[in-house]
Design goal:
By secondary structure, the protein is of the alpha+beta class. The protein folds into two domains: 3-134 and 462-573, no CATH class; 137-276 and 296-441, no CATH class. Helix content is 48%, strand content 24%. It is built from 13 helices and 15 strands. It has helices at 3-40, 44-61, 63-80, 83-89, 101-133, 137-148, 283-291, 297-325, 434-437, 444-447, 456-501, 506-532, 546-573; strands at residues 150-153, 162-165, 168-172, 181-196, 204-220, 232-245, 261-270, 330-333, 339-343, 350-352, 355-359, 369-374, 381-395, 400-413, 418-431. The strands form two sheets. Strands 8, 9, 10, 11, 12, 13, 14 and 15 form an eight-stranded antiparallel β-sheet that branches. A hairpin with a 6-residue loop joins strand 12 and strand 13. The longest helix is centred in the C-terminal third of the chain and has 46 residues, at 456-501.
């Protein structure tokens, strides 16, 4: 083939390819905006950012269809205008190294561009799209409240979600001392916490109900650089609020379990709003996770949950031991300088549902549990109660423990007053003890041992996440290569179809080109899902779906390649 003819055909292929790629990418970008617009309520600035970040990804994803469309339309027009006949009369063959050389070169360029883009550009752009949707988690909560009057926040692992209901909400100015902590004001709010019913991970049972006229929710969102390591923390202060447990307890003349006043809620660690997805990862990151799967957020999140649970359990056990076999009282020095002294009742302290319960027997004094709060800037107060519940939340990022002491059927005494309260709550932070800091260095291998404190189902979850992470990384690497090669194979199909159909009609070319392209793409996506389809329970009969999934990923290219070979053989006989 002469240089002039090659440039003539190649220039037409590039022009049609760029036009088709731009149109398809634009349609897919606007289509991808529909869900975020309807569910997250993006503002105009976020819409512009999403379009800008989505274009590189959508452009790359349009390459196979655009390449097939371009070759079909260009060679179809050449055939329709009898230019193919003239070329054959000049002695140029119809093979891929003859008249098909421009298509072959364009296919190679598309494959190379696609592979580079999928390995480096698309992951960064797709991650930016995801971050744009939840770049302002406070505004995300406000938008969900305004649209649906509720927002559901998941804790790591997907269990024990929090559901926040409110009539309205707005974003308030943040505290200059806490720039990463956003403040959302909720009006007529109610918060429901859930627990998982034993033996049934799917059924979420409401545990506690918080209602208030107004609440200020404080959400600590990590910086972009720390999004993989630092969790989102959610806490709230409820004004003119009450708390209702699922099971009402207290005196017979007091049916309400929560008292009107200021209630604290949390802190709770929430799942990061930025999903971990291998599509967001550049090739170096995928290679790192393949060699060190424990560095993934999925496994890190699971490990953090185990470590935090061990720290909380160990702290409560230490308190229980000190109250039962030690001095009989415990004292805390809060970070703000306040001091708290807790004295148990007549019953031995017990640990129930991740909290330490201190109570008194029915025969003993009704208010035998005592909490003394020595305040730095105000007079001390003392509360005597029938029962106390101590909760603790470990915050390893701040090296502190958030402790909440809830007193039931309490009598609160100050210098000149004595008030009965159905519930009385004190929340404070203390530095994390050195013994608990050591727990933070436990590796994943520690929890894979049978001697660890986690339950068998938790160990099964850890193994499942490990396997799913490994399969996800491998399938993503193979799918990117397969997707890139599909551009080359589809150009050969498009070249053959264009010459055989002898039509330069755009509608016909699109209808002919979209079917093989979709076949290849659908099988790649299906293969990835098969690789990541790890059952909940890994039994001894478990069979890793990775091999079958990779076969499906490559089957699309194999089928299209067979079609291309058959079409090429038919061209030779014409």
């Amino acid at each position: 083939m002469s240089k002039t003819l090659f440039i003539y055909i190649f220039r037409n292929l590039v022009v049609v390819f760029l036009l088709a790629s731009g149109v398809i990418a634009g349609i897919m970008s606007f289509g991808g905006l529909l869900r975020p617009l309807t569910e997250q309520g993006l503002d105009l600035n976020q819409v512009g950012q999403m379009l800008m970040y989505a274009m590189p990804a959508m452009t790359t994803y349009s390459y196979p269809v655009a390449a097939l469309f371009a070759t079909t339309i260009v060679y179809g027009r050449l055939a329709a205008d009898n230019e193919i006949t003239a070329v054959r009369a000049a002695g140029i063959s119809l093979g891929p190294l003859g008249l098909g050389k421009p298509a072959l070169v364009m296919g190679l360029i598309c494959a190379l561009l696609s592979l580079v883009s999928l390995s480096f550009i698309v992951p960064a752009a797709t991650l930016r799209v995801e971050k744009t949707v939840v770049s302002n988690i406070g505004q995300y909560v406000v938008n969900r409240i305004e649209q649906q009057h509720q927002v559901r926040l998941l804790q790591p692992g997907g269990h024990s979600p929090l559901t926040v209901y409110a009539r309205s909400a707005y974003l308030d100015k943040p505290d200059p001392q806490s720039p990463n902590e956003q403040v959302v004001v909720l009006n007529d709010v109610s918060i429901v916490t859930y627990v998982t019913k034993p033996g049934d991970k799917r059924l979420q049972v409401p545990e506690e109900f918080y209602i208030a006229k107004e609440a200020r929710a404080y959400i600590r969102q990590p910086d972009d650089e720390d999004a993989d390591e630092t969790p989102v923390l959610f806490r709230a202060i409820l004004y003119q609020g009450m708390k209702f447990p699922r099971e009402i307890t207290g005196r017979s003349d007091n049916a309400i379990a929560g008292g009107v006043g200021t209630q604290s809620f949390g802190p709770f660690e929430l799942r990061s709003p930025i999903r971990e997805n291998t599509k967001f990862m550049a090739y170096p990151r995928l290679k790192q996770l393949l060699e060190h799967p424990e560095k993934s957020r999925r496994l890190t999140e699971t490990l953090r949950g185990f470590i935090r649970a061990d720290q909380q359990r160990q702290f409560l056990m230490d308190l229980q031991h000190e109250l039962t076999y030690g001095r009989g009282i415990v004292q805390f020095k809060a970070i703000n300088g306040d001091r708290f002294t807790l004295q148990p009742g007549t019953l031995a302290p017990v640990i129930e549902r991740e909290r330490l319960v201190l109570g008194s027997s029915p025969e003993g004094p009704p208010e035998s549990v005592r909490l003394i709060h020595n305040r730095v800037s105000a007079p001390s107060i003392e509360a005597n109660a029938r029962e106390a519940r101590v909760r603790v939340f470990a915050d390893p990022d701040e090296n502190r423990l958030a402790i909440t002491v809830e007193l039931l059927d309490a009598v609160v005494s100050g210098p000149d007053y004595q008030n009965p309260r159905s519930t009385f709550e004190r929340a404070f932070n203390i530095p994390m003890p050195e013994s608990l800091k050591k727990i933070q260095s436990r590796p994943i291998s520690y929890y894979l041992q049978e001697t660890s404190n986690i339950l068998p189902e938790q160990r099964n979850t850890l193994l499942r996440n490990w396997k799913k992470q490994n399969n996800s990384v491998i399938s993503e690497m193979f799918s990117r290569v397969s997707f890139a090669l599909s551009c080359l194979v589809l150009t050969l199909v498009g070249y053959s179809l264009g010459v055989m159909f002898k039509s330069g009609n755009y509608l016909t070319a699109f209808a002919v080109s979209v079917v093989p392209a979709l076949l290849s793409i659908v099988l790649i996506v299906t293969g990835q899902h098969i690789c990541e389809n790890i059952p909940q329970n890994l039994t001894k009969d478990f069979k890793d779906p990775l091999e079958f999934g990779l076969t499906v990923i490559w089957s699309g290219n194999a089928i299209v390649l067979i079609i291309a070979i058959i079409l090429m053989l038919r061209l030779k006989r014409t």
